[in-house]
UniProtKB/TrEMBL annotation:
This is Ketoreductase domain-containing protein. It holds the Pfam family adh_short. GO terms for molecular function: oxidoreductase activity. It comes from Channa striata (Snakehead murrel). It comes from the Eukaryota. Residues 7-246 form the Ketoreductase domain. Belongs to the short-chain dehydrogenases/reductases (SDR) family. InterPro entries: Fungal_SecMetab_SDRs (IPR051468), KR_dom (IPR057326), NAD(P)-bd_dom_sf (IPR036291), SDR_fam (IPR002347). GO terms for cellular component: cytoplasm.
Length: 253
């Protein structure tokens, strides 16, 4: 991600996995954003993130429990004071949960938890940070992370089209439905915020070896994040309202 094209980025869920690696890569790039806001619900427990913020002055840690509206509002105030008049260029809604549950094990509580974290929270975080994104958007033109963008980290498992035939053998009700809902949240945001010049899209990171993806996944977290950042750096108006994977391929909703 090129600094000349993006001054500030906020990533949710940076205690581990893809979120932590996104912050690592952004911080080590000489052309990375000047301000990298890494959020976590319990920063005191995040040793790797704390070490990163001590060695990289651009990395600022902000407490954010994505399920808690009060926490979202407090985080927004803090971020407003960090980014100031420049506003926020890029919001990456990355935090997520996944518990595999089939028709026999699924519960209403599990459904609601997944909907809250994976679909409702990204919507309300975007809503809270909208004034900061609008401030950034008003200072530039065109579409992309150089101006303002909302990137929702979704999953191909949320694709209704792909959940059929050979790909349909993994029946994780709560996760798949919550990511399908996130995809629709993304399309709604794109329809709403396009006129403000805020690019909105959904991005699938691939199947990645994290706590969520497990040890047998296809990709290392480095491979996934390198691809994601490459895609992010090239986004333009053509990608607004789209669903892509970490290689930049368009995915079916
Ligand atoms: P991990 O399980 O490794 O990390 C999940 C992150 O989300 C953690 O930082 C966790 O924080 C955070 N989180 C969960 N709940 C909350 C909350 N209430 N408030 C704040 N943070 C929270 O997952 P990945 O890194 O693999 O996944 C990142 C994103 O990528 C997710 O949206 C996931 O759905 C998506 N994805 C991942 C794939 C994979 O193969 N790994 C495939 C497709 C999509 P804490 O440490 O506090 O729990």
């Amino acid at each position: 991600m090129c600094a000349a094209r993006c001054n500030s980025v906020l990533v949710t869920g940076c205690s581990r996995g893809i979120g932590l690696q996104l912050v690592r890569e952004l911080a080590k790039s000489s052309s990375g954003p000047a301000t990298i806001i890494a959020t976590a619900r319990q920063p005191a427990d995040c040793t790797a993130l704390q070490e990163l913020s001590q060695t990289c002055p651009g990395v600022q840690i902000v407490t954010l429990d994505v399920e808690d509206l009060e926490s979202i509002n407090v985080a927004q105030e803090k971020v407003r004071s960090i980014v100031g008049e420049k506003g926020l260029n890029c919001l990456i809604n990355n935090a997520g949960v996944e518990h595999s549950m089939d028709i026999h094990t699924i519960t209403p509580e599990a459904m609601m938890k997944h909907f809250q974290v994976n679909a409702v929270s990204p919507l309300f975080i975007t809503k809270a940070f909208l004034p900061l994104l609008q401030t950034a958007a008003a200072q530039s033109s065109g579409m992309g992370i150089h101006r303002a963008a909302v990137i929702n980290i979704s999953s191909i498992l949320g694709s209704i089209t792909c959940n059929w035939g050979e790909g349909a053998n993994f029946k994780s009700y709560a996760y798949r439905t919550s990511k399908a809902a996130l995809n629709m949240v993304t399309r709604n945001l794109a329809a709403d915020l396009g006129s403000d010049g805020i690019l909105c899209m959904a991005l699938h990171p691939g199947w990645v070896r994290t706590d969520m993806g497990g040890p047998h996944a296809d990709l290392s977290v480095e491979e996934s994040v390198s691809g994601l950042l490459n895609v992010l750096s090239q986004l333009s108006d053509k990608d607004h309202g789209g669903f892509k994977d970490y290689r930049g391929n368009n995915l079916p909703w």
